[in-house]
Amino acid sequence: HQTSGHSSKMAEVNEVNVKKVAIVGGTHGNERNGVYLAKTFLREPETVKRPSFETTVLLANTDAIEKNLRYIDEDLNRCFSHEALATPRETKEYARASEIHKILGPKGGDASSDSFDMVFDMHNTTANTGVVLMMRPTDLFSIRLASYLQQKDDSVRICLWAKNIDPPMLPSVSKHGMTVEVGPVSWGCLDAALFAQTRRLIMHALDFLEQTNTNPQAIVLPKQVVVFGREENVEYVRDVDGELISMIPEELQGADFTKLISEGDTLLVGFEEGAPPCKRYEGKRALYPFFVSEAAYYEKNIAFMLCDRYSVDLVTGEVALCTSEGGSQPE
Which of 40, 98, 117, 242 is the most exposed place for a label (fewest CB within 10 A)? Predict the structure, then answer.
């Protein structure tokens, strides 16, 4: 079992002076909670204004939003790696990614660059994730913000993107950023409770950024926070013709972040009644599933992702793997 792991120490956080913040909806056009929350903020701009910084609200994949589709030609949320941005192609999403990069970037900008200081990219998923905030493993400022939001809403989870990659997600173009993922919500639908929860969290996040600028000493955070770190994908089993011949077992459906998968556990089952498992977990290290049966990932052949629990020291940035006994040990 190979695991990507996460760096043992986060990047150092300098004093963050927040000047420009973006709230984005509709990176996937059929994820209606984010689309309509962004449209609400566009109609009510005073709700997202704060005195010490500028807030921009953006609808990302406008063509896909109009057609109620995830995307037109390619996944916009895979268009923001340096390689993808530098590879011209005739797609609606490449053109829109280039426009968004000019607005929010440049990607990789240092503290003195003109790129946005923070981006909140609002999504919804068909998986039973609840609210999960996702960001770079090295973005300690965003992890601190997410920890603050956990204090406001203890149902919030924090999950780090895979390490040692150039992330292709939209929030990666700014100095700091996070995906605000909520689920389960069906494609093209709205969920009132998750809509209201996301709105509250965005308001709290803006208040945190305002306080960062005006009175940072008043921000009280725990010394450590537990996060999930993405480790690997579990792929569906297909036949020689590429036809799907497997599905997620009943005991894993809806078990995002909650059921620990151990060596020998069933990952996928076949369609025939009483058929043996198509795939078992072979890893020595027990992991948690998330994005279980996400509808958009069938085309990517991803049944679900696996993650582990880490403790992040919010003062030093040190990262430790959480042990089964509830403690932690350095990586």
Answer: 242
Q: How far apart are the C-alpha atoms of 45 and 273, rounded to whole Å?
A: 55
Tokens of 229: 């770190």
Cross-strand partners of 179 = 121, 134
Terminal CA-CA length for the chain = 16
Q: Helix %, strand %, coil % for the chain, to 5? A: 25, 25, 45
- The pLDDT assigned to 164 comes to 84
- Which residues, 6+ apart, have CB-to-CB distance to 242 below 8 Å? none
In Å, what is the CA distance from 123 to each residue of 59, 184, 261, 270? 12, 11, 26, 31
Indicate the DSSP class of residue 76: G
pLDDT digits (tens, 9 = 90+) for 56-98: 999 999 999 999 999 999 999 999 999 999 999 999 999 999 9
Supply the mean pLDDT for the chain: 93
Asked if residues 330 and 104 have their Cβ atoms less than 8 Å apart, the reply is: no
Rounded distance, CA 135 to CA 169, Å? 9
Instruction: Quote the CA–CA distance of 309 and 287 in Å, as a whole number.
Output: 8
For the chain, list residues with pLDDT below 50.
1-14, 325-326, 330
Q: How far apart are CA 271 and CA 248, in angstroms?
A: 10
Residue 206: its pLDDT value, please?
Answer: 98
